[in-house]
Amino acid sequence: MLLRSQNNPVITREMIPAISPHLVDVSSVFNPGAVKIDDTIHLLLRVQNRGRETFTMHSTSKDGINFTIEHKSALFSNLDQCSDTIYHIYDPRITMLDSTIYIIFAIDTDKGCRLGLFTADDFSVLDFHGFISDNDSRNGVLFPEKIRDQYVLLERPNNASLENGPTSGDSIILSSSLDLVHWIQQKVLCSGRPHYWDERIGSGPPPVKTRDGWLHIYHGIATHFASSNIYQAGVMLLDLDDPSIVKARSRYNILEPRELYELTGQVPNVVFPSGMIVMDVDSDGFASPDSDVYVYYGAADTTVGLATTTINELVQDCYADRYYDHQ
Ligand code: BMA
């Protein structure tokens, strides 16, 4: 289970610096992408103003709790190569691969939501390299290394709607690519479990390499409650050599909306994990079993929460009750 920080919510709308004219008295900040470079944790924040327009802001921290937010929003370059009208660019997932910072954003266009691949040098300018999904899709995460000489991606096609809610989906798909631009969908990695906590699902932060397999935090949505869809977090373990194989998957959620800032807000009853920082990684690139893990999540689409755990605990959560069903 994840343990909430006593400083939660660690980032709120009041902390967003006023930048005239668009970012004054903003409405919300949530669903951050996260990466640790040397001893600094970087978050890319999804910020909405009172026009419900979306901005991306960069913030940094040494301790993972106290963040300094830059007095500017990130710029997107090369978007003019896209002929569709773009409405929102949001929910960044950050992967460091071969010393390059890759970011996959969801992009709402007049043709639906698509995944866009970006790179960043210092997070002030995010360079667009093209869409990497054809269809309506969200929650794209890139693995931090090539596997069998191929880049690997998880994505969640939006093929199912939530009642009174946005488009969603009930399967995570694994795709591969030789060049990061052209992707081939290989397999349904896993699907929602009707009637239980994760009826609809989508990837959270990018997978993390451990000696037990690729550790992957995801979100699950319980849709069978009359008043609201409940967004929770869970975890699964994928085979190291063939990540299309789910070795284990948590029977229970590891975080669910309980605190007031998760239960009420722009969208009530939401914890939405989007960033994961592993504090200790060994010289072969594996997360150390006893390493602290910091998970950043959007709370009620309104603030940013932090919850902590260790690699060992997450692996155990995958095997809780030895329940396992990867279809
Ligand atoms: C999902 C996405 C997220 C959002 C979540 C809860 O479908 O739109 O950006 O945080 O719903 O509202």
Give me a quick take on this structure.
The chain is mainly β and 327 residues long.
What does this entry look like structurally?
The chain is mainly β and 327 residues long. The protein has 2 helices and 24 strands. The longest helix is centred in the C-terminal third of the chain and has 9 residues, at 311-319. The mean pLDDT is 95. The structure holds beta-D-mannopyranose.
Lateral strand order in the biggest sheet: 6-10-9-8-7
- Order of helix and strand elements from N to C terminus: EEEEEEEEEEEEEEEEEEEEEHEEEH
Distance between the termini: 23 Å
Shape: globular
Radius of gyration: 18 Å
Mean pLDDT: 95
> What ligands can be seen in this structure?
beta-D-mannopyranose
Q: Into which percent range does the helicity of residues fall? A: under 10%
Task: Work out the helix count.
Answer: 2
Total beta-strand segments: 24
Question: Biggest sheet: strands, sense, closure?
Answer: 5 strands, mixed
Low-confidence stretches: none
Strand percentage, roughly? over 45%
Which structural class do the helices and strands define?
Answer: mainly beta
